[in-house]
Amino acid sequence: MAYVQIQTLTAQRDWPGLVALLEDLEAAQFPSSPLPSHPLSASAEGGAADADVDIDAPLTAHDARVYALLLIALLLVGDGPGARLLHRRTPFHVRMTSWELNAIADVAAALHKNDTASALTLLASFNSLPTLRARAIHVEPAPATTILLVPDVPPVAAAPSAGAILAHNLAPQTQPRAFSRLVRPLLPCLADAIAETVLRSVARAYTGVHITSLGRMLAASPEQIRAKVEDGSLHAAMGVESVSLDGDVLHIVKGTRSAAAGAGGLAGSGPGLQQVQDLAKYLMHLEREI
Q: Residue 259: CB partners within 8 Å, gap ≥ 6?
């Protein structure tokens, strides 16, 4: 079952495998009336769950969750061109009915502009949003099915009609600002990957950087940077031997391994191509801040 496979690959952080699975799902145009499938938590014994168990709708054709998951997975493997092409080929009605997909597209757009701070700020803002169950809404002509994120209706309230739910989700101002259960676990993974990319780029390009400048790239305060230095997590994320603070300047000690890696650049001497590219990105960031 695709649902369970997605959960498994997410737990294993197998991003290339997740991309391959989701691209196969997108290309296969799986049926509009899918066979029932349950997430891992549906039944402790792995058997069929009861009808009233709180489970997601199975994946179906033109499911916005597939496109949202694939967009995040492509960003996680660093495939920016693939992410842009995916956004262009996503069916119009899928983009119209999925706030979740458009929210992730905003993150991708920020990364395309090399604005990591905006991307991380957006991802941090998503932490306060709810996680909703996906519900299958059957629309005409049968047997077409649309998957929407819909808040659970209290038992005492009358369940809205399929048409009312669809109309609610077609209006951008009333679409639920929430994430599905399959997409939610990938958001912190993407934030961690972006932050690690920024830190490793800075470590390759510099031996010293002002913590205010680093904080702007990470959408973090100087106090948060200092805390990461003190608990030892910053140098591990940078992949360097050690980091230390001298006032507001962060000093980076790359160590033998990093120095050997940097020596393998252009003509075997001087800064490597990757280091020059990282320096150019950092200078572009400084220009935006001035």
A: none
